[in-house]
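Q&A FORM
Asked by: J.P.
Topic: structure of Acetyl-coenzyme A synthetase

PROVIDED:
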Amino acid sequence: MSKQVFKPNKEFSKNARIKNMCEYQDLQDFAAEDYEGFWGSYAKEKLEWIEPFTNVLDESNAPFVKWFDGGKLNVSSQCIDRHLDSRKNKAAIIFEGDRGDKQIITYLELYYNVNKLANLLKEDFGVQKGDRVVIYMPMIPEAAYAMLACARIGAIHSIVFGGFSSEALKDRIEDAEAKVVITADGAYRKTKPYMLKPVVDAAIDENSPVKKVLVVERNNEDVTWVAGRDYSYNELIKNKSGVCEPEVMDAEDPLFLLYTSGSTGKPKGVQHNSAGYILWAQMTMEWVFDVKENDTYWCTADVGWITGHTYIVYGPLAMGATTVMFEGVITHPDAGRPWKMVEEHRINQFYTAPTAIRVLHKMGEHEPAKYDLSSLKVLGTVGEPIDPPAWKWYYEEVGASKCAIVDTYWQTETGGHVVSPLPGATPIKAGCATLPLPGIMAEILDPATGELAEPGETGYMCITRPWPSQIRGVWGDPERYIKSYFGDVKKDGKAVYFTGDGARYDEDGYITITGRTDDVINVSGHRMGTAEVEAAIKKHPNVAEVAVVGKPHDIKGEGIFAYIVLKSDKGVADEVEEVKAINKVIQKEIGNIALCDDMVFAPGLPKTRSGKIMRRILRAIAKGEEITQDISTLEDPSIVETISTMVNK
Ligand code: WTA
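REPLIED BY: S.T.
REPLY: Here is the structure written out as tokens.
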């Protein structure tokens, strides 16, 4: 890792919310000395309460915690209503469609659009507080209206990324027992229409808990309509009232579920609740992106992931910012698309994933120079470690060596950033997420002792005190919540939150994330559980056994490498056909995002005598590394040599 340190831009720091490391340290000290005082004062200052909270943090039932108990509020009001006095004509959302079509939605328009949809859900579909609504949408403003409309009436939304297959959608619908799905006929990608509604149709059968489907007509392609179940948003919305009183919600009422992969079993429904989540979404927008009143902020994520939730919709709107929503593909029509958008919309903060930076670098190294990018002040990255060459290009060519790069480390479960530079204060280093944000007790611990890891030693990235935007539970499975997050590391005898990531301190106490320690693969910043991919592949009738591991990939960060053992009587007749057939199963069960980069048809897998697959060995083989582990205890040590030869041939 480069040791070079880049100081914040002096001009920028002057007007930043946190201007230097002394101010950062003061905030850290405040939180360390009076944790509840710290969070309580921000909750009072930043949120508009219908009724004030009586208690800041209740840990009596830890790890099930409550923040701001007794307080009442509504998250959609935090994002819309409270801005109407001072910002009613300000752009809340700037939408750019795939084909370059543009739309500006002011805060007042957002208010009406959200309220109409809230009324529709209540009146026409009978959606009530606490009901689950699945949102399966393209990147269009109606996706944001749907989220906020649910929040307005107290329904719990669960967004399923539009790239997931009908099987994956079905699983998530059933786990959450959702009664409504909001979708679109489809949308556009690289100017061509693509479809979503048929996927929804395939996910719902007569036993489905879903009784109503609302369809936004975006590309107007032909779709099937099921009478009594499917309704056109464009029709129903016409005669709805634009006023809908927000439901009075408890601070700890659930706001949304978002399914994410873990190391075992099916994806889990990560639950976020109202007050704590929206507080940290807003505070991190203010601190980490330092968005100012007239700024235009763009996050390229999809609303189907947590980054889209917190940093396209909830965070920017909670602080009253202008957020850009983009339907298209950033490399289309060429790798200058994002820079053209930065120039046209005069974007001030740009937030994307290392995968995107690597693609843009590779496909359009000199594209940034063709556009006026002088409006940019802060560049962000998220989702995976960023490699120094990508970082350098981003810093120098996109940011003209004057913009801070905020390498934001966080997860679906943390709700918002937890380790990140502050653009006006923190000196930065390439590929380094730097320091915990004020109020977040993020520490790298030695899992064996629970002590702080020594500089240079890889330890476990933990958070040792609850924080407001913390995951509140795994939907329907409290045991899994405890087991997944509070089982591995103890500090002073007490179980602490473990992220699943490894990390190390450098000599300055800066944090570098080294990647997952569990069986989760990070493909283009998307989390895939090896167990999930394996379960999909096993559905193919010829497959006897399978083990999936991650393998470093130039663009995607990690690719998926599958070792497959076919049933003995089948043999591999035609490898190309076999790969195709297995890929088809993966597409059906999960979606294109889980397609394997490599498949090897092995005669067997390296296993311990108790039958445990040694993934560590398989990872090493996939990387082409020498096997240094002792393999003599394996059930069949010779299999290692056999597979290595197959992979390296
Ligand atoms: C990884 C995405 C290194 C990490 C917000 C984490 C990162 C997982 C970074 C969460 C970063 C996220 N540097 N690794 N800046 N940010 N990760 O839930 O492994 O989709 O556990 O949330 O992405 O992925 P998730």
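FOLLOW-UP: The mean pLDDT is 96.
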